[in-house]
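Exam revision sheet. Question 4 asks you to relate a sequence to its structure. Input first:
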Amino acid sequence: MVDTSVEAHDKPQVILYWRPGCGFCVRLARTLDAMDIEPELRNIWEEPDAAAFVRSVNRGNELVPTLLVGDIALSNPSPAEVSEALAKLS
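Answer key, structure tokens:
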């Protein structure tokens, strides 16, 4: 039997930058779950490097949710934008 499953290392890395109390972050996390995407979570209030990254891609603002799909940064993305980024990397 041939294994045709996609290995974890073949999938683009997805990182969700978030902060507690962010309703938009919760919504995006649910969307990702529905898309069967399990992102790495980075809390910008607890991780200075995560906050610095978010500021670097959002004109100095700590805008969350910010999603990193491979090397594509998305600010408060729609499901369509997430799908498009994933398609670009596959």
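Marking note for examiners. Helices lie at 23-34, 48-57, 79-89.
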